[in-house]
Design a protein that fits this description.
The protein is about 10% helix and about 45% strand. The chain is mainly beta and about 80 residues long. The strands form two sheets. It has a three-stranded antiparallel beta sheet with strand order 1-4-5. Strands 2-3 form a two-stranded antiparallel ribbon. A hairpin with a 4-residue loop joins strand 4 and strand 5. The longest helix has 8 residues.
Length: about 80
């Protein structure tokens, strides 16, 4: 059975201090506006693999299923 997937492209600029608060559990979700103006919310924990000493910066593709559950987050290659 194929699952319907929706993709959202978002630019994230999260400082190390803000992500530390997310990591510490003071917040658990990221809220972002995609490139079409849709407001999306997704868990912060999958972003841990993208953290650098400067925080998290870049354009990401967030994929969710028809049930609005997160499927994947990928950093988009710089163009």
């Amino acid at each position: 059975m194929l699952q319907e997937v929706c993709s959202y492209t978002v630019r994230l600029d999260i400082s190390p201090e803000v992500f530390q608060r997310l990591y510490a559990g003071q917040a658990s979700d990221i809220v972002a506006i995609d490139n079409r103006g849709f407001k999306i919310r997704f868990p912060a924990s999958p972003l841990r693999r993208f953290v650098t000493r400067d925080g998290i910066h870049g354009v990401f593709v967030v994929e969710v299923g028809a049930d609005n559950r997160l499927i994947a987050i990928q950093r988009k290659a710089a163009s």
